[in-house]
Design brief:
single chain, UDP-n-acetylglucosamine1-carboxyvinyl-transferase, Chain, four-stranded mixed β-sheet
Amino acid sequence: MSLIGTVTPPGDKSISHRLVLFSLLASGEMRLTNLSAGQDVRSSLEAVEKLGVRIAELDSETVIQGAEAGLVERAEIDCGNSGTTMRLLMGLLAGRPGRWVLDGDPSLRRRPMERVAQPLRLMGARVDCPEGRCPMTIEGRPLKGIDFTLPVASAQLKSAVLLAGLQAEGATLVREPRPSRDHTERLIQAMGGRISRVEGGWKAEGSALRLPQRVRVPGDASSAAFFLGAAAITPGSRVTAEGLLLNPTRTGFLEVLARLGARVETQVQGQEPEPWGRVRVAYSPGLLACRIGPEEIPGLIDEVPILALAASQARGTTVFHDVGELRLKESDRLAALVSQLGLMGAKISLEGDKLLVSGPTRLQAPGQLDSFGDHRIAMTLRLGLALAGGGGAIRGEDSVGISYPGFHEDLERLWR
């Protein structure tokens, strides 16, 4: 059997989060179509609504009224499983008058938040973050701009500081060791914020935002990556993703698939709100291992799981460099990949912060696998089981609803 057909992935999760969350600093009314229906973005919607943003669901549109005039000044916010919701809220609330408690589910309570709290404190906010994790308390205060170099390339950390910088006195400079996703910068510019490039990063200055009137969210590149990556290694497969986000900071996984030897075709069809278009990936025999350098990882951090599965079918050893950040996601994704793909027969191992995958390997379907409640691990394992030619149980597989509620329906339709 093969994966054959067309998929229209859900609205991009990163852009959806930001459109919703930035309403806390913006004026105007915005109508959104193709907003991500995943639970993570639902957490952002529920958070801003609790803080005073007015939201209405009208047929296929989500209508959001900006809350620039004022927020609820005391609230407890449940961010669910969403690190993006929590980290961006930290920056958004840091300069607003009020006191808020941010919390999340057991998985989110294990994820590091101190590295976001630290620059916000330097700017003047009060952030109580026991043991560097949530639940945390934020008291917004007048902020002053800082010149801050990120300890790691992280779009969420960068975004939190830039959003605080829009509320600060003086300029805020954020420098990053390597370029990361730039959705926040693009959206601030589109909404009239004062933000500009500087050497090694970005400068934000105090400014008001205005919501765009209408936005159609492009398809989520990270969600599409699972079917496109599986098509590259499943004989006879060809999958087309329509309406897909083609922001250059999000398409690194396509470059890796092409280096492995897959047939990849990309067609840009529009530029608003970011580049989007059509991508086709088809199976090609004789895939060859490649090197994924540390400078590439920030642009494909969420696609490493499916790329590791793809690498298991390439001749030689594929090395992913500097992937330590995957230990700090919804699960320890490195440990999960090594243990669970290993149970399927993949030759996969860790050397420090390097992930090594050798192939080609014939995969098998063991009796039980574990996603550790991580949506990207669950999707990778399900596609690995399909490649192995059989079904199989995956503990915590319902986690796919965090980002891709229709994943199983799309898999059933494409798998023929």
